[in-house]
Amino acid sequence: MSFQSILFNRDADSDACPAQPGFFGDLQLDQIVASLIEGREEYDLAPLFYTPLHEVEAVRDRHHVFRDLERAEIRDAIDAFAGGMRRVRECLALRDTLHYRLQKQRWFLESGAAYCASVQAFDEQLSTLAPESSGLVALRDYIAEYARSEAFTSLCTETHKVIEDLAAVSYAVHIKGARIRVDRYDGEPDMSEEVAQTFAKFKQGAGSDHRVRFRDHSDMNHVEAQILDLVARLHPETFRGLDAYCSHHANYVDATIGRFDREVQFYLAHLDYCRRLKNGGVVFSYPRVSARSKEELVRDACDLALATKLLSEGQRVVCNDYHLTEPERILVVSGPNNGGKTTFARMFGQLHYLAALGLPVAGSEVRLFLPDQVFTHFEREESIATLRGKFEDELFRIHEILQHATAGSVLVMNESFASTTLRDALLVGTEVIREIIDLDVLCVYVTFVDELASLGDSTVSMMSTVDPEDPAVRTFKVVRQPADGLAYAAAIAEKYGLTYDSLRTRIAR
Known about the structure:
Layout: H1 24-27, H2 29-37, H3 56-69, H4 72-97, H5 101-128, H6 134-147, H7 150-167, E1 171-176, E2 179-184, H8 191-200, H9 222-234, H10 236-248, H11 255-278, E3 284-285, E4 288-290, E5 296-301, H12 304-312, E6 320-324, E7 330-334, H13 341-356, E8 361-362, E9 365-369, E10 373-378, H14 390-404, E11 409-414, H15 422-439, E12 442-446, E13 459-467, E14 470-480, H16 487-495, H17 500-508
Parallel strand pairs: 4-9, 7-12, 7-13, 10-11, 11-12
Antiparallel strand pairs: 1-2, 3-8, 5-6, 5-9, 13-14
């Protein structure tokens, strides 16, 4: 039984609870993951989205699993299995809230019965399906072998036997005042039936129900617990069997099956998330990834965090395209403020990271480079903890990034060095871009300095556009075209309060 994980082919411990990457907030990937895992908190899925892949074959393997899970019959089988395993966890969780030993043991037995039924049904369903992904084929073979193993078959046999033995237990309770006596059942008549038959002849129709309904507590009260203890004393062999069952099968859930139950939710969560956005018009596709080629093509993509928000408000999502051909590496994005530049930069970073997770990504056609690392350099508020000014902090952070970046990295820079003068922003930006070119890093650089878009064959100029009929109206489309020199003018006007809205407000005073 060689199957270990539906997510990681080689290293079964690759998902060992890493911390959230530092760039998640900049790219709003934290919001995307939160939307993805909503309603699945029991599985602790977030760490699985913190572990990108670095091999093209591993990405393709996940794509194949996704395609299998898009088939209704396979999805239904997985959902049924997940429901059974949820019942197992519910029984175990309830057991942990109880106080009386015998009641705790009975719920443990119930969880074992649910586990056996779930695995057997899953094995039967998988045997009739024909998955094509290597991951689900290996799972099917593992489940088939496990379901016929001595450990599992003995678990099922013992579970059913203990349940049958408990079901055969009968006893009589004698109540006299405050005294209760428990005896073996010896064929005594059921007094409740006799009372019902005696008064049945007086019944004239449905009457009002004046019975007091007691609260349904999971835990027993002390009287019930004492009665159960007396019943156990009357049937010692049966209850010794229950005790032995709980001791012998204390950890009955197979580790690999438990791991699969959690990991498969990674796929199902993303499929459900995609379906919700598809209903709003967002297109998803499986990206073609390469560990060598840095020629990229993206059509009809969008910032998923923004798309989720807009669709929840009933608004339209604007999609964008871009492409890179040799020797292009850096997209320099300029244009008017609030025109979608930052959204485009986040889209660029999200695409590369989500593709590295082996997920379908937003876009009708997507061809991407598979990065080894993702870095972001976004504007930050000054922090007294660093004892650095804003511009100094930006220089410090970009220096750290360039020291750790490699030719396999992706870098997203947004409004970097906007806190300084045009002259300094041009000087520093030029040096940074030259360093990025030397490192051969893929980068998107959002800036108000148009000159940075024409520093060589490695740079590509892209601009956020406005409505030709009304320049005040943003289209939120970012297109490939030379910078027009208006971005810095708009930034200066806003900085010194010389925009139309600012002047109008001041004049009105």
